[in-house]
Amino acid sequence: MSHHIALQFEDGVTRFIEANPTETVADAAFRQGINVPLDCRDGACGTCKCFAESGTYTMGEYIDDALSEDEAEQGYVLTCQMRATSDCVVRIPASSAVCRTQQANFDAKIADVRKLSDSTISLTIEGEALNKLAFLPGQYVNLKVPGSEQTRAYSFSSMPRDGKASFLIRNVPGGLMSSFLTSLAKSGDDMTLAGPLGSFYLRDIKRPLLMLAGGTGLAPFTAMLEKIAEQGSPFPLHLIYGVTNDADLVDMDKLEAFAQRIPNFTFTACVANPDSPYPHKGYVTQHIEPQHLNEGEVDIYLCGPPPMVEAVSQFIRERGIQPANFYYEKFAASA
């Protein structure tokens, strides 16, 4: 039985390979056209040292000069000696260009475009090529704007299923992609995407999670929650979803469904507009409770505009909390 290995390059490009139980990750990568850093192949030089972020594996023989005992305990591996025994995520300390790999390109068609609110558009694409699309929940792709040579970056709001994938897209007045989707797009139109990209993705769940979403920053979290619903989690998970106005609250039915499917998942939605009748008003930081931070034994995931990222960072510092991990992705609209 082969295993899927996600190779995460330092420039944000992710490529997936399949590794047979008898071959090393380095050999599997080479077999599929990816030249990970390598020199000796004997576990002696340390050139292929990488970090195994998740998954299980066995290691062949190597010397301490190539990989120390402390490094091995932390999760560092030599890909020339690593044999996967499960699906794995491996961070490669080199750019994709150095390793002679590029973003994968996929051709698809628009299946559905819906305006969920004045601020949010739902886009679903479909195509046979998407059955080969693999990404880590939370990652994004560059979507080419039809009729132009420009691209826009969007996080998946769903995992690929039956040749389909979805996005939540902010409706930017005058925006190139927004203008196309709201006035020109129709089912069957061609779309091209390149990726996957990004280091904002769901890691192995080893402690409670606090997820913080601003506006269409909800997208990567619904993809993450799909994955969590499939694999389960023994730890509590809480999502705080903040928007500006009541009408900006979208996909609330999805969040309710996840709360039913995932026993230890809860969520809070809040509206910043002080005139809103919504029961939870204010910014995301005003709804972070001490139990959500768990005295620092928590992994925080945050996706939102830069001011939100800075506000959350300041909030955590002021409370003297050092979370186990703090993963974030900032996004800003392109006009």
Summarize the structure.
The chain has 335 residues and is α/β, with parallel strands linked by helices. It has helices at 25-31, 69-74, 176-183, 219-231, 252-261, 290-293, 306-318, and strands at 3-9, 14-19, 49-54, 57-59, 76-78, 82-84, 88-92, 104-117, 120-126, 140-144, 151-155, 164-170, 190-197, 209-214, 237-243, 265-271, 299-304, 325-330.
Order of helices and strands: EEHEEHEEEEEEEEHEEHEHEHEHE
**Averaged pLDDT, please?**
90
The number of distinct β-strands equals 18
Helix content estimate: 10-25%
Please name the CATH topology of the largest domain.
Rossmann fold
Overall, the morphology is: globular
Q: What's the tally of helices?
A: 7
What is the radius of gyration computed over CA atoms, rounded to a whole number of angstroms? Answer: 21 Å
Low-confidence stretches: none
Instruction: Indicate the CATH class of the largest domain.
Output: Alpha Beta
N-to-C CA distance: 47 Å
Strand order of the largest sheet: 11-10-13-8-9-12
- Give the total of domains: 3
CATH superfamily of the largest domain: Nucleotide-binding domain of ferredoxin-NADP reductase (FNR) module
- Percent strand equals 25-35%
What can be said about the biggest beta sheet? 6 strands, antiparallel
Structural class based on helices, strands and sheet pairing: alpha/beta
CATH architecture of the largest domain, by name, is 3-Layer(aba) Sandwich
